[in-house]
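Holo model, 2-phosphoglycolic acid. Inputs:
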Amino acid sequence: MRKKIIAGNWKMNMTPSEAVELVNTLKPLVDNDEVDVVFCVPSIDIIPVVEAVKGSNIQVGAENMYFEEKGAYTGEISPAMLTDAGIKYVVLGHSERREYFAETSGTVNKKMLKAFEHGITPIMCCGESLEQREQGVTMDFIRQQVKVGFQGVTAEQAKTAVIAYEPIWAIGTGKTATTQQAQEVCKGIRECIAEIYDESVAEAIRIQYGGSVNAETAPDLFAQPDIDGGLVGGASLKPDFGKIVQYKQG
Ligand code: PGA
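Output:
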């Protein structure tokens, strides 16, 4: 049985002081040992958030990371900086990074390898645009993102990874994919992992759905056999996130 993983993706929101306030608000609401709860926060919020979540079930993730160890890469953040600060997860290849910051599956792959090397669990994002969905190439496109992203990743590493399926047309639009659409693609991703590795890796890897997840849509989505939780943007900044984490009680 895979443990569900529900992660908030704060994006470029929350100053350090706002971040601490939000953690204090959410801490009692997300108290649920049945799921892994992760807050992926802006770099500058990492240290105060790690401090603020102490004693709770919340784990902290970063929203990005560079693939070099250290050096002349102005503005970047290294894997060792993240682990030293208490980071356990990192979101890699979010569609916003691919779109606005020219990230490719190739750079995502380098970051994946580096994250594993440092014991950080990657949450690798993939997902199609509306145009690709309409052209009927959704699964081809996502399979390519997954195959390139996982190049050189060992089976043992892949078992611990998280993949977030996020259709671009559903992100921040209030337009959640239907439960069937989300399940179908997550199942396709699992099959792709089985082809790259084997059934045991496909059974172990956790696949989230993301894109306008809210307290109403979460229970159905998370009840699907191939959906192991969610990556939540907008709703992770509100008390609603507590309801998403407690989706079984809704
Ligand atoms: P959203 O964002 O929940 O606001 O649609 C999800 C994401 O981009 O991770």
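The mean pLDDT is 97. The longest strand covers residues 35-41.
Archived with the compound record.
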